[in-house]
Structure formats: C-alpha cells, structure tokens
Amino acid sequence: MSPTFFVQAMLPHREVYLLGTDGRPVEVAGADGRPEKLLAEHYSATNGEFTLTVQAGLRKGPGPLHPQVSRGVPYGGLARLLLCHVITTALKQDSPTIDLGSTLTEFCARVDLTPSGGRNGRLRYLLDQLQRLATCSITYEWETVTPGRRDLRGERLFVVSSYHLWHLGATPTSEAADGGSITLSDAFWTEVASSCFPLDFRKAQMLRGNPTAYDLYLWLTYKLGALQRSGRGSVALSYDDLHAQLGSHYQCHADGALTAQGKKNFGYKVRAALKTIRAMWPGLVYDTPRGRVVLYNTGPDVGHRPPKKR
User: Fold this and answer.
1) How many structural domains does the chain have?
2) Which end is more exposed in the chain, N or C (fewer Cβ atoms within 10 Å of the end residue's Cβ)?
3) How far apart are CA 297 and CA 220, in angstroms?
C-alpha cells in the first residue's frame, strides 16, 4: 500500500545537500578531520496547488561548531520501499506498531534485501534510511487562488511517534539481541488508513534501484485506478506536469518548467522507465507522443479495495 499524497509529489531520487550561496554543498570538518557535506534540512516538491515538504530529523554533529546537523531527507528507491513495507504491514495487522524483527539481517529478509557490511554496505544504508523515516516530519498543503481570494490549507505530521532500531557495533554486521519496532504517529496512521492505494510489492522490490521507474509505477497504478472509477478512456500529461510529481530534478526555468535540455533528458529517462515497467506489466498500454505521456484505461495493476472504517 502507498499513501495517495506521496503520488501527488514524491521523495527525492538522490541525496539532497545543504547548499551555500554559491550553489554548492556546504562542507565542514568531520569528526575524523575529513571534509563532510552537510545534508539538507528539508525538501519540498510542488505540483500545481499541492506542495509536499519533508523536514529532516537531527543527529549529533561533528564538533562544537556544529553540535547538531540534519540527519538527511529520506531518498531513493530504498526509502520508498521501506515506507511501502511499513505501511502495508501496519494495515495488514490493523495496528500502527510494526515489529521489525530481532536483527537487522532478519528485517533485510522481510524486504528481500541481501545484507552486506562495510562502511558503504547495505546494512548501514538500510539503517540510515530507516532512521531518516523515523525522525522526519511531513507537511502537505494546498494553495487555491481565486479572484480576490487566496486559500491555504494543510497539515503537518510526524511519520513515526516512537521507534527502537538495532545498533551497528564495532563490526558492521554486529547487532543487538533485542528487536526493532516502529510505531506510526496517530496523525500519519489516520492518514494512511483512509487514503492508500494497493500496488504489487514484488514489482516495487524489483524497481527499488530505479527511483524514476518506481515513481512511475506508483503513478500508473494510482492513475489507472482513478481512470477506471471515472470511466474515462485515457489521460495525457505533459513532461512538465509529470516532472512535478516525480522526485527527479532536471534543469528547469525559474517558473518550474523544464528547459529544452531538461525536457529531453527527462523524456529519455521516462520512456526507458516505461519500457522497464511494461516488461513486468504486459497489460499496460500507453503512448509517448512528443513531450507527453498518454495513458489508456486498462485498469490498475492491483484492484482497489476501499479502506476499512475506523
């Protein structure tokens, strides 16, 4: 299951850094004396009237000049897969508290990841993304402008109210004997229990290394469900409109529209991702005329079931 508000605007595809006035990532001396790039404190994506903002949690900084720094915004295919797994498990159990298993390697098996150690190993990356999800907050808001009036509405909520994660000790694969758990916040639990749509988790796992394809798969599944309910035969989106929904960031003008080169690069990436998705979803029917994606009403990949009343 995936929350609907993460389809209107999505998490970033890659790491987001705190930028200086020169547009470059800000660097400070790390704990080991080597330069360390500071991670962004927040990330925003706007799609029409809707804006999604993710505020990162904090962690201990590298020294007295920076006692606390951003933990970083969740990003990439793994963050999306983890969010999907946590929400799906909570909804299946009808409980906001999720048991993550007794060890980190056990949790890897649950999400079909092969654990690997080392400084840049998958265990550290997995734990890092879990911590980012557990400590971030989300704001989503709508701005409606009519003649003589500007309306703003929205909500800010934490994804998780409490968590207990495993500790990676002196060796990358050492783990605490006690288990891990996550409890979704009341506001987030209420939101996902009432506004999620189903997807094929096996496809999500296969696409986790390709965030563009993962985002497109979510969008296609959600959009085809909406088309089926509306009875319309097709829907068309320009590359500019689609770019505003995905977590990718190509070259844009000040008004947010893609530059000519940005549109070319984004279009190439989208067409390649659509071919990857159709290889797993043969019933998908679409066209890619110049600068657009046209999606035909063939029904969603997974049938929609109304949420339980709570």
Assistant:
1) 2
2) C
3) 10
